[in-house]
Amino acid sequence: MKKIIFSLVICSALFICGCKKSSSNPSFTPDCTGAAKSFSKDVNPIFATICAGCHANFGSYSQIAADKSAIRSRIIDGTMPQNGSLSDAQKNNIVCWIDSGAPNN
Ligand code: HEC
User: Fold this and answer.
1) Which of 37, 60, 82, 101 has its CA 20 to 30 A from that of 76?
2) What residues does ligand 1 touch, defined as CB less than 6 Å away?
3) How far is ligand 1, taken at its centre, from the CA of residue 29, in Å?
4) In contact, 86 and 36? CB cutoff 8 Å
5) Per-residue pLDDT tens for 3-53?
């Protein structure tokens, strides 16, 4: 019985934290006016410093480009980076680069 109560407490704690994370990150509206769109200069450094610690698979252009639609939606809805956040400029760089065709530039 104790075990069940314990698991219920943990589950509701996780649930509440889960809600907090998404509500404190309202959907982001990208603004591509003047956003940098160079993969090597503007986009890759963000993946290398912020995402690659958890996502070893985001280590190269082809791997990032292959997952671009999932990456785009996770940045817009604010669920990634987990346990962190990106500045609006960083979000614009990634989203606008994807929207410009995700070139290897
Ligand atoms: C602290 C660790 C951590 C960091 C930092 C992090 N992620 Fe994640 N990410 C996860 C975990 C764990 C999952 C799987 C659970 C889920 O889907 O929410 C995930 C799932 C994803 C997914 C969906 C699965 C996939 O590969 O298609 C995407 C896309 C993603 N992350 C993108 C990013 C991007 C982009 C960044 C950097 C801006 C980032 N993540 C930073 C831990 C992290």
Assistant:
1) 60
2) 50-51, 53-55, 67, 70-71, 74-75, 80-84, 86
3) 20
4) no
5) 544 554 544 554 544 544 444 557 899 999 988 789 999 999 999 999 999
